[in-house]
Each structure stands twice: as structure tokens, then as C-alpha cells.
Q: What sequence folds into this?
């Protein structure tokens, strides 16, 4: 008994030393992760951080990886001013080679100039505002997820197809919310829906009863909401308080478990969301991602954009493996990314660094879960939206 | 616009106004007895709401599931804890600075407010995130045409009214209230008459802060959500309401609270209707601009302070 214990200890020590010496030979390369780690949408930020962290851990476990990677997590609080500070901190640190950056559109658009100025390559993992990649032509800025343009195209077509006629639009007055309003309105006009009222609200507003009472008077079939989870929860809950009967149609901004948690399954039932890509389990590498994520026992789920953060981090590490930890060479190499396999499907950057994501998925809350429309009781005609 | 919808607007405005009035009454009480502006009042409300939430979570963990019992405990703990906090603020931060310029108290409490807010953010588990507040009141709905009255809204309104009425009764009908009024009118003379000045000041701080805690819990029950920064805007609005009504006058504070809620509701409805492209988000701009106009018209408030009627 005693001998075996000693043997174990020796073997363990040997393993540790071996691992230590193997790692000591590898150069450490730092990547930055920036996202909202506190505040109303922190569930999404932490899900993204964990997913990027997972990519780094898996890479470090690979014996043939040339470098040892380290993830530096920074909080942008979903606020533009804080985001610029975080971006500057990451970009001005020469030991950090590249970044997996931003869930919130307001932070992503605020920081593109910073990244460009410092020549710091980034891959956006969650923000959907088209301007982030399309307003400028910055070689540093890339995005693995899609933009809100396709999202709203599909949403407008789908909803008019279901026979809804009258919409009230509520959006937050940030660039993000305003752009949702713009693109949704454009496509809704194209598909023949009618917008009977429009309300711009602040992103931290608490009371929506005045707006919603006015909306109630307009008798809409659908309330379209262009904004993020926290005020989405408030608006949906106050709709109920005022007895406003309409379908609640959100965007990718409310596709999070926090939305359902905040409302409870009963109130969240029937809320809609549209998001690019497919659910994790239907993605090419989705099962791999889900099982690896579960194995790490993070205390929160990956949320909707976790797989994108994972893909962004993996892509950056692939590139660094190939060209070495040099920002300039990483930027040059990222420009060449075409039909690259990843867990979210093929990644192809266009000349603006935007991944061309053709697929948009439709989700509905059913019994306290986001369910793909086609798989839901609603999609199969067993339940009706109300 | 039909009558039902008008009723709905009025009901929304009343609920908002009730919360504002409860905050404003606190400001006015503090100003009345001590001529100070206690700027951390809004954040005391936040801490009160979080104390209530923590109590609820504790009770749920302990297996007590009766909503009425939970509600009573939540209110009791929040009000008692904030009354104590208010008294402590009065004793250790405000009273020692009596001889100093009033600006010092204002600055000190402003900083205390920031400290309280940050403490909630940092030390409450995941305090930076909005927290769902439990629905402890029955949610039966009475629909009258386009007007839907929820039982919980009606109960909250009644509770707010009762709280303000209780404070009013304490001040006008009890010996304690007599002492508070005496101190407010003339602290020196009140002392000569044998009134324990410090005790009365502390009781007033406890009373105002307890009321803020009740407002915080009401706010949570109404919106079913609280976050660390709710007190910031509520504090500013409550203070403005107290000033518009006439600092030092309870009726003025109540009037100011309801006036501000009415302005916000009107702003949210009329702005987008009159000016195309102006979002309803400008309702606060509208309401505060109107307050500035009121201040220019009646610099001492709608119900101007006469020292004989103070508090």
C-alpha cells in the first residue's frame, strides 16, 4: 500500500515535470477577449468568454501546437467609452497579438478606429451592426457572425408570411437599435406589412407603460423590438401588466437564456427571435463544441454567440500557428481566409472582413426554451402564436 | 382616445407618481428638520430594495413559501434596515457637519450615494446584473374595455397611499410629529422647550429612509426587476419633485411627485405624436425642461414655504 502510494507520487511528479518542460519550450502567445462581463447582457459576454477560453484550452492540450496560448479577458460593460478603454489596453500591449472582440454593436462600432490605429487584428464574435465591417475598409477588423441585414430580411418575410399585418416598432436609440428599426422597416415595406407606430426608448429605461399604452391603442398584431435582453424583459413584462395582447418579435439581441430566466417560462412563451447561423447541435462541429463545453463545467452556458466566439478564437490561433505571433502577418493571413472549416460552418471573409453567413434561423420560446421554429409546436401547427 | 385608454394612462402615471412622491417626501423631511439635502436618498432606496430581495431569497431557501408571509418579511426587513441606515447617516455624517456650510453635507451625501451604489454592484452576488424581483402579489386582471386593472397594481397604489398617509398622520397627529414640527420651525426654541434635538433628527432620518425602502420594494414589485442604479434617477426625480413642490412641505413633495409622473407620461405620448421622428425617449428631457420652467415661475416651489407650516 505504502509502496504504491510512493510510486503514484513519483509518477505524478514525473508527469508534472514532463508537462512543465514541454510547455516551457513553447513561447506564450496572448489573445485578448473583450465582451460584456458585467451588466445586463453579461450572460452573453460570459458565455462568449468561456467559449473562447475553451478554444484556448483545447489548443493548449494539443501536443503539436507551436505556441502556448493565454486568453486575456477584458470587460467592455456593453458601454462604448469603457470598450474604447479596453480596446486601447489590449491593442497597446505588444504581447497581445490579436483579439476576439465585442458582443454589443455599440461597443464594436466604437472601437474599430482604435484597432485600426494600433494595427491590431480583431475578429468580432457577436455584434451584428452592418457598419462595423462595412462603414470603413479596415484590414484589422473581421467578423465571423452575420449582420442584422439578413436577419431582418428573413424576419420580415417570415412574419408577413404568417399573415400578420400591423406592427408597432420599439427600438433603443443606440446605433444598434436604430439600425434594427431601419432594416426591419425597409424589409417590412417590401413584404407588405404595415408599421402603425414607432417608439425610440433609451437603453436603460425602466418604465415603458406610457409607450405601451399608446401601442395598445394602435392595436398591433406584433410588437417588434430592436434592442437587447434587459429592456426586452421589461417591455414584455409590462405588456402583460397592461393587458397588451400581441406577438412579441425580438431580434438576435434577446436570444439568450437570460431572457427566459428574467420573464419566467409562462410570460416568455411565444416570443420570437432571429439569428444567423444554426443552433449549436445542428452546426457542423456543434456536438463537439457542446460536449467539450459541458466537460469544462463552466458555471454558465455558452449562450447564442458562444460558438462564434469559439470559432473566432480558433481561427486566430490557426492563423498564428501558420504565420507566427506577428500582428501584421496575422492581418495579411486573415485577408486570405476562404472556405475555412469551423464549428459554425465554412468561414469566408469578403473584402471588408465580413464572413458571408447565408443561413438565418428562426426561434420561438416554447415551454421555457428557445426552440427552432421548424421543430417547435408552433412551426408544426400544434400551437398558435398569441 | 377612448376612456379606457385614458384610464390606463392615469393608472400608469399614478403608480409612477406614488413612487416619486414617496422618495420626494424623504427629501422634504430631511430638509425640513435640518436644512440639508441628503443626496444619497435614492441609493438608500436601492439598498432597501436589495435588502428586500436578499430577505426573499433567504426565506425561499429556508422553505417558507407563503407569499404573504414573504411579503411581510421583505417589507419589514427592508424598512427596518434602511431606517437604521438612515439614522446612522444622520448621526455620523450629517449631524457632525451642522456647523459646516450646507454644500459640504450635499457633497458628502452625494459621495456616500456613489459608495452605496458601488457596494451593491460589487458585493451583492453578480450585483452588476439586473435582478428579477419576485411577484409576491396576486396578478388577477380586471379588464374593462381597453382598460385593464391588475390587482397587484391596485394593491401597490393603496399601499403607497397608506404609507404616505401614515407618515402624514405621524407628523400631524402624534407627540413625536409635534416635536419634529417644532424642530423644523425653530431648532433652538425647540431645545429650550426640552425637546431632544438629536433624537428627533435621527427619528426623522429613520422615517424618511424607511419610506424610501418601502418605495424600493414597491418599485421591485411593480417592475419585477431591480438593479444597482435604480436609485440614481429616482433620487434625481424625487429631489426635483420635492423642489418643485416646495422643499420642506410634505404636500408639495407629493404634488411634485405626481406632477413629474404626469409630465413624463404626457411627454412619452405627445412628443412622438407632435414631432415626427422625436422618439419617446425624450420624455425625461421634456419633464425636466418643464420642471425648469416651473422653477423660473415659482422659485420657492408650487406650495411656497411659510415657516409656520414647515413639515
A:
Amino acid at each position: 500500500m505504502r509502496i504504491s502510494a510512493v510510486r503514484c507520487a513519483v509518477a505524478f511528479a514525473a508527469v508534472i515535470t514532463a508537462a512543465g518542460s514541454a510547455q516551457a519550450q513553447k513561447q506564450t502567445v496572448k489573445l485578448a477577449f473583450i465582451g460584456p462581463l458585467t451588466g445586463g447582457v453579461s450572460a452573453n459576454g460570459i458565455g462568449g468568454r468561456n467559449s473562447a477560453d475553451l478554444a484556448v484550452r483545447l489548443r493548449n492540450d494539443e501536443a503539436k501546437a507551436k505556441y502556448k496560448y493565454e486568453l486575456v479577458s477584458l470587460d467592455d460593460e456593453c458601454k462604448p467609452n469603457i470598450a474604447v478603454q479596453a480596446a486601447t489596453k489590449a491593442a497597446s500591449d505588444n504581447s497581445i497579438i490579436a483579439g476576439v472582440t465585442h458582443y454589443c454593436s455599440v461597443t464594436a462600432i466604437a472601437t474599430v478606429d482604435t484597432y485600426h490605429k494600433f494595427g491590431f487584428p480583431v475578429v468580432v464574435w457577436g455584434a451584428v451592426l452592418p457598419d462595423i465591417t462595412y462603414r470603413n475598409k479596415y484590414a484589422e477588423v473581421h467578423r465571423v457572425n452575420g449582420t442584422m441585414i439578413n436577419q431582418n430580411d428573413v424576419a420580415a418575410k417570415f412574419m408577413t408570411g404568417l399573415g400578420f399585418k400591423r406592427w408597432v416598432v420599439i427600438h433603443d436609440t443606440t446605433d444598434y437599435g436604430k439600425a434594427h428599426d431601419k432594416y426591419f422597416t425597409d424589409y417590412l415595406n417590401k413584404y407588405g406589412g404595415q408599421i402603425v407606430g414607432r417608439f425610440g426608448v433609451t437603453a436603460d429605461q425602466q418604465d415603458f407603460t406610457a409607450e405601451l399604452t399608446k401601442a395598445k391603442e394602435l392595436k398591433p398584431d406584433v410588437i417588434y423590438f430592436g434592442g437587447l435582453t434587459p429592456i426586452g424583459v421589461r417591455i414584455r413584462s409590462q405588456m402583460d401588466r397592461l393587458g397588451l395582447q400581441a406577438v412579441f418579435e425580438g431580434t438576435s439581441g434577446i436570444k439568450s437564456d437570460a431572457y427566459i430566466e428574467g420573464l419566467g417560462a409562462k410570460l416568455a412563451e411565444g416570443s420570437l427571435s432571429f439569428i444567423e447561423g444554426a443552433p449549436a447541435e445542428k452546426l457542423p462541429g456543434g456536438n463537439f463544441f457542446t460536449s467539450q463545453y459541458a466537460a469544462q463545467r463552466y458555471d454558465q452556458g455558452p449562450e447564442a454567440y458562444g460558438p462564434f466566439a469559439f470559432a473566432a478564437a480558433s481561427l486566430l490561433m490557426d492563423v498564428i500557428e501558420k504565420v507566427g505571433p506577428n500582428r501584421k502577418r496575422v492581418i495579411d493571413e486573415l485577408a486570405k481566409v476562404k472556405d475555412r472549416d469551423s464549428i459554425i460552418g465554412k468561414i469566408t471573409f469578403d473584402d471588408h472582413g465580413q464572413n458571408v453567413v447565408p443561413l438565418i434561423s428562426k426561434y420561438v420560446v416554447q415551454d421555457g426554451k428557445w426552440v427552432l421554429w421548424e421543430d417547435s409546436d408552433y412551426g408544426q401547427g400544434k400551437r398558435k402564436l398569441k | 382616445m377612448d376612456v379606457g385608454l385614458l384610464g390606463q394612462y392615469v393608472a400608469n402615471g399614478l403608480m409612477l407618481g406614488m413612487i416619486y412622491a414617496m422618495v420626494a417626501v424623504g427629501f422634504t423631511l430631511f430638509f425640513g428638520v435640518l436644512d440639508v439635502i441628503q443626496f444619497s436618498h435614492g441609493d438608500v432606496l436601492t439598498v432597501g430594495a436589495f435588502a428586500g430581495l436578499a430577505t426573499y431569497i433567504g426565506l425561499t431557501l429556508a422553505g417558507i413559501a407563503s407569499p404573504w408571509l414573504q411579503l411581510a418579511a421583505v417589507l419589514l426587513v427592508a424598512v427596518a434596515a434602511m431606517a437604521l441606515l438612515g439614522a446612522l447617516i444622520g448621526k455620523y455624517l450629517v449631524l457632525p457637519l451642522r456647523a459646516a456650510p450646507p454644500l459640504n453635507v450635499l457633497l458628502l451625501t452625494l459621495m456616500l450615494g456613489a459608495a452605496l451604489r458601488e457596494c451593491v454592484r460589487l458585493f451583492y452576488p453578480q450585483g452588476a446584473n439586473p435582478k428579477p424581483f419576485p411577484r409576491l402579489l396576486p396578478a388577477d386582471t380586471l379588464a374593462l374595455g381597453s382598460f385593464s386593472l391588475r390587482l397587484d397594481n391596485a394593491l401597490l397604489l393603496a399601499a403607497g397611499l397608506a404609507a404616505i398617509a401614515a407618515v402624514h398622520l405621524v407628523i400631524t397627529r402624534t407627540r413625536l410629529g409635534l416635536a419634529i414640527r417644532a424642530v423644523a420651525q425653530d431648532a433652538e426654541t425647540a431645545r429650550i422647550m426640552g425637546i431632544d434635538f438629536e433624537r428627533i433628527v435621527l427619528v426623522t432620518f429613520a422615517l424618511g429612509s424607511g419610506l424610501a425602502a418601502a418605495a424600493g420594494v414597491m418599485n421591485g414589485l411593480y417592475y419585477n426587476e431591480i438593479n444597482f442604479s435604480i436609485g440614481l434617477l429616482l433620487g434625481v426625480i424625487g429631489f426635483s419633485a420635492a423642489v418643485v413642490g416646495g422643499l420642506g412641505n410634505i404636500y408639495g413633495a407629493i404634488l411634485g411627485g405626481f406632477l413629474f409622473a404626469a409630465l413624463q407620461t404626457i411627454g412619452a405620448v405627445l412628443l412622438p405624436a407632435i414631432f415626427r421622428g422625436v422618439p419617446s425617449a425624450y420624455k425625461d428631457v421634456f419633464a425636466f425642461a418643464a420642471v425648469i420652467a416651473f422653477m423660473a415661475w415659482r422659485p420657492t416651489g408650487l406650495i411656497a414655504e411659510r415657516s409656520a407650516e414647515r413639515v
Notes: The beta strands of chain B are 131-132, 141-144, 147-150, 225-226.
